[in-house]
Amino acid sequence: MENSNQPSFLDQKITSVGEWIITFILMGIPVVGFIMLCVWAFGNNTSPAKANFAKAALIMIVISFVLVILFWGVIGAMFASAF
C-alpha cells in the first residue's frame, strides 16, 4: 500500500538545466543570492531538488562564515600577543 501523505517522486517537477543556470547566476549576486537561497530553501513552491540544494548551500555558507571568523580570530590573537 502506498502512503498518500508522501509525494510521489514521479509527481515532482524536474528542474531544467536553464533553471539551474538561473539559480547559479542569482546565487552569484551577494545579497540577492542569500535571500533567494532562503526563499528556495523554505518556500512551498520550490522543487524538492532545489530546496535541498538551497538548504545545503546555506549550511555551507554558515560553516564557511564560522571558519573565517575563527581564522581571523586566531590571526588577531597572534598579532595581539606579538605586541
Describe it.
There is one protein chain. The protein has 83 residues and is an all-alpha fold. The chain has three helices and no strands. The mean pLDDT is 90.
Task: Name the helicity range.
Answer: over 70%
Global mean pLDDT: 90
Q: Round the Cα radius of gyration to an integer and report it.
A: 19 Å
Please give the largest β-sheet. none
Low-confidence stretches: none
Order of helices and strands: HHH
| End-to-end separation | 71 Å
Strand and helix map with partners:
Layout: H1 17-27, H2 30-42, H3 48-82
Helix pairs in contact: 2-3
Structure in a nutshell:
The protein contains 3 helices and no strands. The protein has helices spanning 17-27, 30-42, 48-82. The mean pLDDT is 90.
From the structure above, extract its key features.
83 residues, mainly alpha, 3 helices, 71% helix, 0% strand
